[in-house]
Amino acid sequence: MVIDMCTISKILLDMIDHEGRQTRFVMTAATGSDLNFKPSDGMRSLFDVMNHLAEIPTIDLQFCSMQFNNFEEVHAMEKELRRNTIDELLALYDEGMEAIHEFISKLSDDQLTENSLKPFDLEGPPRSWAHYIPEITTHLAMHKMQLWMYLRLAGAPVNMRTYYGVRQND
Questions:
Q1: pLDDT, tens digit, for every residue of 1-55?
Q2: Is 168 part of any domain?
Q3: CA distance 129 to 134
Q4: What are the tens digits of pLDDT across the range 120-163?
Q5: Given this model, what pLDDT does residue 6 score?
Q6: CATH of the domain at 53
Q7: Of 31, 45, 58, 156, which shows the fewest CB atoms inside 10 Å?
Q8: Rounded CA gap, 48 and 73, in Å?
Q9: Rounded to whole angstroms, how far apart are CA atoms 110 and 129?
Q10: In the 8-state DSSP scheme, what is residue 10?
Q11: Spatial distance between the Cα atoms of 49 and 142, rounded to a whole number of angstroms
């Protein structure tokens, strides 16, 4: 009898990878859309939402790793990561997801559950990676939905299959 032993890192990475694939699929659906589209005055453009989404894996990993001391440093990193094309955004997104994968896969279950992380602006007790990886996943999901809604409002041919990362031929 073979017993499949799941580690905490595998569970966390499976979760973020699943959401990550869906998010990437929605990002690719923006090809051919008006990237300057804004649903209303005062809102970000579709391309600004995509830039933010592409930056999340890199920024959130560094944020949770306590590599920032203040919001000025976060904003400077956002400016450094800003890209100009969808292909560049997808490459940035892929690099960030790979960095999360490499980092988390090297940690032991004890390291993943140790409450030792307290980014500069968060209140309350220190938390663990087992707390922050689901938070990063939720951050991706929220902005995936935002991008999907922007695409719908811009008239892009997206539907719920797009949202869940299902190709039209599947």
A1: 555 557 899 999 999 999 999 999 999 999 999 999 999 999 999 999 999 999 9
A2: no
A3: 9
A4: 998 999 999 999 999 999 999 999 999 999 999 999 999 999 99
A5: 76
A6: 1.20.120.450
A7: 31
A8: 19
A9: 10
A10: H
A11: 11
In angstroms, the CA 50 to CA 97 distance is 15
> What is the DSSP code (8-state) at residue 6?
P
Q: What is the CB neighbour count within 10 angstroms for residue 56?
A: 23
Helix (H) / strand (E) element for 110: namely helix 109-113
Joined tokens for residue 39: 């649903």
Q: Residue 118 pLDDT more than 60?
A: yes
DSSP E strand stretches across 20-128:
none
State residue 22's pLDDT score. Answer: 97
The total of structural domains in the chain comes to: 1
How is residue 67 annotated by DSSP? -
Tell me the residue range of the domain where 57 lies.
8-30+44-163
Which pLDDT does position 146 carry in this prediction? Answer: 98
> Within a domain: residue 103?
yes
Kindly give, in sequence order, each residue whose CB lies less than 8 Å from that of residue 142, ignoring residues fewer than 6 positions away: none
User: Closest by alpha carbon to 21, among 78, 93, 74?
Assistant: 93
Give the separation between CA 114 and CA 109, rounded to whole angstroms.
Answer: 9
Residue of 147, 138, 157 lying closest to 32 (CA atoms) = 157
Asked whether the beta carbons of 93 and 59 are under 8 A apart, the reply is no
